[in-house]
Amino acid sequence: MNIKGTAILWLLLSVGTLAGAQDKALMQSYQERLSTLIGQIANAPTDNERYLASEETVQLLAKALEEEHSERWKWNLPDYVSVLSAPDGLFRIFSWAVIRDNGEFECFGAVQFYNEKEEEFEYRLLNDKSEELMNREESVLTADNWLGAVYQELIQTASGGRTYYTLLGWNGVDNITDLKVIEPVWIKGGEPQFGAPLFRRMRNQRRVVMEYANDAMVNLRYETQTIQEVEHRREKVKGTNRYRTVDKVKERKEKMIIFDEVEPQIPGMEGLYQYYVPSGTELAFSFVDGKWEMHQGAQGRLTDKKLNKEFSPLPKQSPSYNFNNK
Q1: In this structure, are strands 177-188 and 162-171 parallel, antiparallel, or unpaired?
Q2: How confident is the model at residue 324 (pLDDT cuts 50, 70, 90)?
Q3: Helix (H, G, I), strand (E, B) or coil at 303
Q4: How many CB atoms lie within 10 A of CB 253?
Q5: In whole numbers, what is the pLDDT of the chain averaged over residues?
Q6: pLDDT value at 240 more than 90
Q7: Where are the alpha helices (DSSP H) in 44-108?
Q8: Which of 281, 223, 231 lies closest to 251, judged by CA?
């Protein structure tokens, strides 16, 4: 390479390095400013101050997501805000909650995703409409019409040639009930769609919602478990023409969603979620042939004592972001 070619190459590399450094400095600035605001959402003493901090967080996060290559930035924000990224690098979701003085929750967030049609990354702000939604387990929702939640886990799967991101989330709701949700998300026509028929043998169901008494302990987690299943077999009784049913326990290990079944503690209180508590039955979803397959009565045995990341407690002791103890 001649001297002129070497100089041009050096100039291009220098410009690229400088641009990269500038991008990093800019995103670091966003991160520091957002961290300060998030602290105010968590610790400000009044409704107005917490909401103002949340609104400023939404606006600043939107500006950050508009920056070129922002999808590459590895966010390091306070635990009060959940940031989950998909393994494929094409989907990321931010979520947090504001607690009102009366104990009610409102969730906020944003989705950053790759739009195949436009061949670029875009974002959508999330609008919590949980108080207005009907048929919340059956509805397909959008960013503007969202069942608010703070998400603790993201599971990437594929079905029918589409990629799905199943989210496990929690909402403190109010001083009476809490809510946990299993929420599939996918991108359709350049827009995120919340809810999908991925639950085998659960007709019309697009998500699993568990609402229960806020002092109950309801588990929802995704991890490798040893699951026990009872298989009923008919066997011929030796020396006779009679048959009997024999139960055989099978065990296997795999990644699955484990959660508690909830039901009214008092008969006749169906639909009054302040009376819902764990029934004592643990359920499991495993991903089989493109669908979440439920195992009724499955008993998952914890093999890894380290549970999912817990969010830092909120200013009030109850409710809190402690997913596995609420």
Answers
A1: antiparallel
A2: very low
A3: coil
A4: 11
A5: 85
A6: no
A7: 47-66
A8: 231
Integer Cα distance of 128 and 143 in angstroms: 8
Q: In whole angstroms, what is the distance from residue 132 CA to residue 252 CA?
A: 42
Tokens of 208: 């699993």
Domain range annotation of the chain:
1-76, 79-325
Taking residue 226's Cβ as centre, other Cβ atoms within 10 Å add up to 13
Determine the Cα–Cα distance for residues 219 and 233; give it in Å rounded to an integer.
32
Q: What is the DSSP letter of 224?
A: E
For the question of whether the overall pTM of this predicted structure is more than 0.70, the answer is yes
Beta pairing, strands 243-264 & 220-236: antiparallel
List the beta bridge partners of residue 168: 153, 182
Beta carbons of 282 and 207 less than 8 angstroms apart: no
Q: How far is CA 290 from the centre of its chain?
A: 19
Locate tokens 């950050």: which residue? 64
Cβ-in-10-Å burial (0-12, 13-18, 19+) of 256 comes to buried
Helix (H) or strand (E) holding 37: helix 3-43
